[in-house]
Specification:
homodimer; Pnp Oxidase, Chain A; eight-stranded antiparallel beta sheet; two-stranded antiparallel ribbon; 14 strands; Flavin reductase (chains A, B)
Chain lengths: ~190, ~190
């Protein structure tokens, strides 16, 4: 774990960790195996109880581990982890432990067996809500958030508060190796 | 329409218009009525044929129009439209035509009856894939993209190419009146 011990995020505010559409790392574990993959297609689905949605292709080891364990973690990587995120999205856990091949490290979650990825900005521990039709037809997994955490340098009191360090921003994948960083915050007043 | 006539986007690349998780405006029309609302919870679901997913609350007029017409458009607003986006997300079309109350203008789509919102950066015309369980249980609508367009100032040859004008960036809603702009683009090389 880094020097910046994660703080707990109120479940009612946990949707805010994904509301801006960052790319996530999906971590999973079952039966002594674990894995991490990248997913651009992930978002909140409900506020209370908080639910998240993520698309997980049938070919992946992550899919196998999530289906077996009924759990996953959505980790919000920083720009400092963009290279590792691309690597986690471009290789298969079937070809070797992706924590080894990407250099990503992990630490234990609080409510699920899947690990939390070190150096991320936020973490959402999820338990799968079984949806056989969605899983089979759309590769769609719905999880209820059972615990949420954030790096207090960037998320405090229910709000993202990015500092001036560009590498501490969340990231948004497009295609190839192209990402956008999360940009400037701005406020709009209701008229 | 602005001076910057939309260009057609190859359907195979249309997922890139939403892959970075921007907040969208959802436009709809049926039986002489039309509406526009904001949605932070929207994302690509599949590449080919391209499918998009959006969460539409049961209480909304948009829901009624989409269920009646089987069509909707996901419009990607620029920061210049952030105030109107917040307004479209904070009021109901049942209380009056939101194109009037928000000042948003529109022009015709090519393949669906729902209008395109003027001044947006990109537009995805969608036909609903009926999913009664997802619609009822999760307020989730899945649409196949039947036409896609973009402002050539910001999206060309299948790639976002934002200029230096901050108001031409896409936006990412968090809560209250807080948004992030889409930030700096960066490239990561596969190792």
């Amino acid at each position: 774990m880094s020097d910046h011990a994660p703080i707990e995020v109120d479940l009612a505010k946990s949707y805010r960790l994904l509301n801006h559409g960052p790319t996530v790392l999906v971590s999973s574990a079952h039966g002594g195996r674990q894995n991490v993959m990248a997913a651009a297609w992930s978002m909140p689905l409900d506020f209370a109880p908080p639910k998240m949605l993520v698309i997980i292709d049938k070919s992946t080891l992550t899919r196998e581990l999530i289906e077996a364990s009924g759990e996953f973690v959505l980790n919000v990587p920083s720009r400092a982890l963009a290279q590792a995120t691309l690597a986690a999205g471009s290789s298969s856990g079937r070809d070797g432990d992706k924590f080894s091949t990407t250099g990503l490290k992990h630490f234990p979650a609080t409510k699920v067996g899947a690990p939390l990825v070190e150096g991320c900005l936020a973490w959402l521990e999820c338990k799968v809500i079984p949806e056989p039709h969605n899983q089979q037809t759309f590769d769609m997994f719905i999880g209820e958030v059972v615990a949420a955490h954030a790096d207090p340098r960037v998320f405090q009191d229910g709000h993202w508060q990015f500092d001036d360090e560009p590498l501490n921003r969340s990231i948004h994948y497009i295609a190839g190796g192209t990402f956008f960083a999360t940009g400037e915050a701005f406020e709009v007043q209701k008229k």
